[in-house]
Amino acid sequence: MGVKNVTHKSRWIERFYIPAILSGLKITLKHMFQKKYTVQYPEEKWPVPPGHRGAIRLNKDEEGRVKCVACEMCATACPAKCISMEAGVAPWDDREKYPVWFKIDMLRCILCGMCEEACPEDAIQLTEIYDFSTYTRADLIWEKERLLKNYDITVDGKYFDRSREETGL
Amino acid sequence: MPTLKIDGKEITVEKGTSVLQAALDHGIDIPHYCYHPSLNIAGSCRLCLVEIERMPKLVPSCATQAADGMVVTTNSEKVDDARKSILEFLLINHPLDCPICDKAGECKLQDYTFQYGSAHSRFVEDKRRRATKDLGGNILLYRNRCVLCTRCVRFYEDVVGEPYLTVEHRGYHSDISIFPGKELTHKMTGNIVEICPVGCLIDKDFLFHSRVWNLAKTKSICPGCSTGCNMDIEHKDNKIYRIRSRENMTVNRHWLCDYGRYLYHQYDEMDRFTTPLKRTSDKLNKSGWDEARSIIHDRLALLKRSKEIGKMAVVGSAFASNEENYLLYKVFHDELGCDKFFVHQPAIEGEDEVFKGGFTIHTDKSPNQNGANLILGKKTDFWRAIKKGQIDILIFFGKDLALTLSDQQKELLKKLDFIVVFDHTLNDLAQHANVALPVTYFAEQDGSYLNAGMRLQKFQAALTPPDQVLPGWQILLSIYKAFNEDVKMVTVSDIMNDMSRNIKKLNGISFFKIGDEGVQIK
Residue B125 — very low, low, confident or very high, per pLDDT cuts 50/70/90? Predict the structure, then answer.
């Protein structure tokens, strides 16, 4: 294979550099007036499409009580076996059974949504929350209170409008 | 012996057998609610309808005796239709509350609806609602769920012989009800929860504690009395959740008394010591297994050398398994030459309680008195021997949760030189021990019991004992091996084999031969 030597000899105007700088600045100037794509994460969050399978929440009924009846269908359906609970006699007159404690090990959870499908009461759902990393493993084992809080911050569909202080995430 | 054909299969059965039982015995499933092999026939649920040639209509197979030359069809279109209709009727008022029903998972209505019923309901009207009733004792009556099979009613009539429940009103308004002024506190009450095919009768003791499919089952024998009822321990996460009876037609049929059913709570809640304890001056202090074993071994070796073995008494227990009593005999008789063997057994008062259906609750509240007597001989009064001053050293195998001593007996114990106790709790006797060894209870170990009817039955470990607690036979085996290096036994099964060689009545018996239903000893 033969080798071809190419030489380029700059003209004087090119060696002056100013026009090259100006043409670069022109592009920058153009982008300054275009639509901006940067998101100020984590203060601002990139919204995900509907149906996204993120962190799990426990729903509340009209009176603000946990909707779950502790039937353990979710725990039975869960392929990662990350859901555990203890059922007890509900302290309310119109309900019989409720979860005394309810725990999801989010370290194990694979966000498959099987629990949501299995639930006969629509009490467990996956949400649009995708950024729930923590500094310790213990923080990722979510109790009932935390799962109910997930409901509060996502129920109106305005999770992405909330501030970090409000969501705690 | 009539021979009949069910679904093309030739079957020969005993005279008087129902078509339903004949089919069930030969692996043909006919759905049924009201039929129960230990209860009288009611024929009320109409689910077991089958087609029999030359009979004009479908007939209930539970109430039809098998006859020679019968040709039975259990899966024709006509039968399927009938089942579907019956299930549809039953589901009209049955609530869809499976998620909060404790029976879900073992419910016959769920199973049959899934297998034979329709996936859709045509019923658009409101379901009948009835309040849940507390029947007293441990029983809740979820009236909405009842399918009126009347098994519970007949249980009290046929098996207990004392009516408690009845069907009130007629037709659509039929309702299970308790006789006025009565409460379901009868000793056999727990059984109605088991025989209820749906979740109508629920045990408060198990209410909402676990879903049934999460529980593991281990076959066991009730240690509550010398009847030796067969039972299943149902457990999860090393904890017993409930105990249910296991069918054994020669011992307990399908039943279990409430004392045995809830006995596991006593073991759950007992204040057990979980490390070996040794006496230093006036107190029992924690020790390790190596230390405890060497204290015992040194003392026994000294005794063997000094030829004062006659000063030792070994007390086996009617609460211990045969293997444990046998090893006691092996170690202290064959190895050390002791000849004073006794059996600890609870005081027996009153008479055995026999119910109408033949089920017996024995007053002997120990499970293995016959076994202990067979192995160690029938001597129980070791207190007299102590009183006479014939005994310096006492080896006591307890396992009796109800053990208490009188002040006089406590005084007698103070005279003794050295006491080794195998037990769960620091009871009156263990308080006086020089060495107290923590042993496992029936649910934590394998073994066998010989019941009042001389039936040898085995039980299996369901739970893992706490770290430092060992099965009695393991402790005795290690003491045995310290004296005799030729001992090759390792498992309970080995001990049973050795026992069958050395005890005439048990000749030829092994754990395998005992099986799930036990063997009769002559």
Answer: very high
Closest-CA residue to B472 (of B332, B366, B345, B323): B323
Query: What pLDDT does B4 receive?
Result: 94
Chain A residues within 8 A of B100 when measuring between CB atoms: 69-71, 96-97
CA atoms of A51 and A55, how far apart (whole Å) = 12
**Shortest Cα–Cα distance, A71 to chain B (Å):** 5
Query: Can you read off the two tokens belonging to residue B499?
Result: 């026992």
Min Cα separation A54/chain B (Å): 26
Q: Is the pLDDT of residue A140 over 80?
A: yes
pTM of the model: 0.90
Distance from CA of A97 to the nearest CA of B (A): 6
User: Would you state the pLDDT for residue A12?
Assistant: 86
Q: Is B207 on the interface with A (CB under 8 A)?
A: yes
Closest Cα in chain B, distance from residue A132 (Å): 30
The two most distant CA atoms of chain A are separated, in Å, by: 92
Listed by number, the residues of chain A in 38-77 with a beta carbon closer than 8 Å to a beta carbon of chain B are 69-73, 76
Q: How long, in residues, is chain A? A: 169
CB contact under 8 A, A72 and B207: no
By three-state DSSP, how is residue B252 classified?
coil
**What's the confidence (pLDDT) of residue B368?**
95
pLDDT digits (tens, 9 = 90+) for A99-118: 999 999 999 999 999 999 99
Strand B519-520 and strand B393-397: the pairing is unpaired
A-B contacts (CB, under 8 Å): 27
Radius of gyration for chain A, computed over Cα atoms and rounded to the nearest angstrom? 27
B211 and chain A in contact, CB less than 8 A: yes
CB count, 10 Å around CB of A66?
21
B393-397 and B418-423 strand pairing:
parallel
A88, A89, A120: residue with CB nearest B99: A120
Tokens for B476, please give them: 């005795």
Going B132 to B114 to B255 to B240, the CA torsion angle's sign is: negative
**Cα atoms in the 13 Å half-sphere on the side-chain side of B369:** 19
- DSSP per-residue letters across B105-140: TS-HHHHHHHHHS-SS----SPPP----EE-STTEE
ipTM exceeding cut-off 0.85 for this assembly? no
Interface of A with B in 97-116 (CB under 8 A): 97
% of chain B exceeding 70 in pLDDT: 100
Inspect the interface and report whether the beta carbons of A97 and B100 lie closer than 8 Å: yes
- Burial bucket for residue A27 (CB in 10 Å: 0-12, 13-18, 19+): exposed
Provide, rounded to the nearest whole percent, the portion of chain A with pLDDT above 90: 72
Q: Is the pLDDT of residue B5 over 80?
A: yes
- Summarize pLDDT for B126-157 with one digit per residue, the tens: 999 999 999 999 999 999 999 999 999 999 99
Q: Which helix (H) or strand (E) holds B51?
A: strand B49-52
Section B293-300 average pLDDT: 93
**pLDDT tens readout for residues A46-104:** 889 989 999 999 999 999 999 999 999 999 999 999 999 999 999 999 999 999 999 99
Structure tokens belonging to residue A7: 């030489």
- Residues in chain B within 8 Å Cβ distance of A96: 100
Closest partner CB to A87 (pick from B98, B104, B208) = B208
Which of B100, B209, B210 lies nearest to residue A96, judging by beta carbons?
B100
